[in-house]
Amino acid sequence: MLFLGLTLALFSAPLTTLIKFSFQQEEYSHVILIPMLSASLLLLERKRMFSRTETQWAVALPLLVTGVLVYSFGQRYSASLSQNDHLSIATLGVVVIWLSGFVLCYGTRAFRTGLFPLLFLFLMVPIPDFLLNQAIVSLQAGSAEVSYAAFQLIGLPVFRTGFIFALPGVTIEVAKECSGIRSSLALLILSLLAGHLFLRSAWAKAVLILAALPVLIVKNGIRIVTLSLLSIYVDPGFLTGNLHRQGGILFFLLALGLLAPVLWLLHPSGQGTGSKRPGQ
């Protein structure tokens, strides 16, 4: 706790900025939850994890040096980095330093036991610009393809030019804001948690994560098509109304519904073995 308190004080500036961004920008909205989820998972596995602890400088020191170097690199080149990339490097350095403190205080055996919740902390590191932009463009392109296929499937006349769709009485654009990056990150994080808590084998966890990827795109496509149809046949205001701005939760729940059968099929109870329980 002393080590954690010291690091929180030393790195208060980037961590405070990270918390502010978590409330202000959608790609950061999950960040504030990650430490709390990680701490909860550590508490679930605390009996196994702390059954035998030891101080290990040999492993902790290289991790500590690595974390400090990463953080220092970000500070040194902060002027040439975007705010997002600067915060990404700083947070990465802080997380590595936290891991070094855990190894120092509890040893590598405890670290291996709590590997998932500890590595889970890396999800609080902001995605670098080049990766974030690529993810948004990929989701945007995939959503456009699914939407176009859906319009054709239901027989709705559509003329497509890139991300722009000319529909009867309305023209829409699948913009970057339609990528659903926030709900996509949330779904991937929930898939990781569900795999850890309910699935045993690594292959089953991998299948669940891979299954979440097309669900993300299908969910975005369904949202675009639904809003478009409502704007054509009910009220054009649906394209700018509350369902467009705040209705993401409904389609997120739809995505969970699509992913739930995959989790059920992969669950060990389907083979008569019972589920994995943390701490066993």
**Beta-strand percentage range:** under 5%
Domains (count): 2
* Uncertain spans: 271-280
Which radius of gyration do the C-alpha atoms yield?
A: 22 Å
Give the number of helices.
12
Shape: globular
Please describe what this structure looks like:
The chain is mainly α and 280 residues long. It folds into 2 domains: 2-126, no CATH class; 130-271, no CATH class. The protein has helices spanning 2-10, 12-24, 34-44, 46-49, 57-76, 83-113, 115-119, 129-153, 181-198, 202-233, 242-246, 248-266; strands at residues 159-161, 164-167, 170-173. A 3-stranded antiparallel β-sheet has the order 1-2-3, covered by helices on one side. A hairpin with a 2-residue loop joins strand 2 and strand 3. Helix 8 (129-153) crosses helix 10, helix 9 runs antiparallel to helix 10 (202-233) and helix 10 (202-233) runs antiparallel to helix 12 (248-266). The radius of gyration is 22 Å and the shape is globular. The chain starts with a helix and ends in a 14-residue tail after the last helix.
Strand and helix map with partners:
Blueprint: H1 2-10, H2 12-24, H3 34-44, H4 46-49, H5 57-76, H6 83-113, H7 115-119, H8 129-153, E1 159-161, E2 164-167, E3 170-173, H9 181-198, H10 202-233, H11 242-246, H12 248-266
Antiparallel strand pairs: 1-2, 2-3
Quick recap of the structure?
It contains twelve helices and three strands.
Characteristic terms for this protein:
280 residues; mainly alpha; 12 helices; 3 strands; 69% helix; 4% strand; globular
